[in-house]
Design brief:
Structural class: mainly beta
CATH class: Mainly Beta
Largest sheet: 5 strands, antiparallel
Oligomer: single chain
Number of strands: 25
Order of helices and strands: HEEEEEEEEEEEEEEEEEEEEEEEEE
Radius of gyration: 18 Å
Number of domains: 1
Helix content: under 10%
CATH topology: Neuraminidase
Strand content: over 45%
Shape: globular
Length: 288
């Protein structure tokens, strides 16, 4: 039992205790014309030393919620796209991660504190309550509807679970998964990154039937992707932004970035209107 407790603490450490790597969020215009995709000039939205990550566009597309660690404290911040200003949203003694506006549009959910519970907050940053109190440690999550949320539960291996708030239950639907969890736009389905012996695959699952489908292998070294409104996917490999469309056997290059902060792209987010793209880049290693 002592060994199991120590192992669980070690698995939780990257999110709860260890200092995360330096990252910045870059914002750029995104245009789709006759199926062709182009990006505008990227702008560093955070532009500071430290961890700024996990961008999530508000449903109205006017702002971006994100996770920022400052002076050892991790809180949720909001960036106003029109004004170009940043506001601290949560200010608690706990750490908050993975801001996600909930289906009611009046709250956002986060992963909170060293136990990694799922919590709800009002949009102005007031804590409301813990959700799924018995289910932890949760790493990441995505909402299917107001009562159903899919969660990444840390463990060896990590599992994908369908959680029902009213019942407080969380059934395992996949195992050995990556950190990307997304609702499939326009469909009753959830997508996730499935690990195998050589990397990650994009898979979807019908939450009612449990039937799954493998779409495409993710680029080497990346487990993150996002959906566009036309049903295509975006991911990245190094400094290359890549796109995949149904029926294609591989990813195609959209663009390559020359900015030092975009040489190692990880997470991605797209605005509800599909006209803005946010990319997270790992800070370049300074020369020795």
């Amino acid at each position: 039992m002592k060994f199991a407790a120590a192992l669980l603490a070690l698995l939780a450490a990257p999110l709860a205790a260890q200092a995360p790597p330096g990252t910045d969020i870059f914002l750029m215009p995104l245009t789709m014309t006759a199926g062709s995709l182009t990006t505008g000039a990227p702008r560093n939205m955070t532009a500071r030393t430290g961890y700024d990550n996990q961008p999530f566009f508000s449903p109205d597309g006017r702002s971006i919620y994100y996770t920022s660690q400052r002076d050892g404290q991790t809180d949720i911040y909001r960036y106003d796209l029109a004004a170009g200003t940043t506001t601290r949203v949560t200010s608690t003694t706990e750490n908050e991660y993975s801001p996600t506006v909930m289906p009611d549009g009046k709250h956002f959910s986060v992963i909170r504190d060293s136990t990694q519970h799922l919590w709800s907050f009002t949009l102005d940053g007031t804590p409301v309550r813990a959700l799924l109190d018995s289910i932890r440690p949760i790493g990441y999550h995505t909402w299917l509807n107001p009562d159903t949320v899919f969660v990444f539960v840390l463990g060896s291996p990590a599992t994908l679970r369908r959680a029902e708030l009213a019942r407080g239950t969380a059934a395992v639907v996949a195992s050995d998964i990556g950190r990307a969890l997304l609702k499939v736009p326009g469909r009753r389905a959830v997508s996730y990154a499935q690990r195998d012996s050589t990397g990650y695959l994009v898979r979807t699952i019908d939450p009612v039937t449990g039937q799954g489908e493998t779409l495409i292998r993710l680029p080497e070294g990346n487990e993150f992707f996002i959906w566009l409104s036309d049903g295509s996917l975006l991911s990245a490999s190094g400094n290359r932004l890549l796109r995949w469309r149904a029926g294609e056997k591989d990813w195609s290059e959209v663009t390559r970035f020359t900015q030092p902060g975009l040489q190692r792209i990880t997470r991605l987010a797209v605005s509800p209107a599909g006209d803005r793209l946010a990319l997270v880049g790992v800070d370049p290693v300074p020369p020795q």
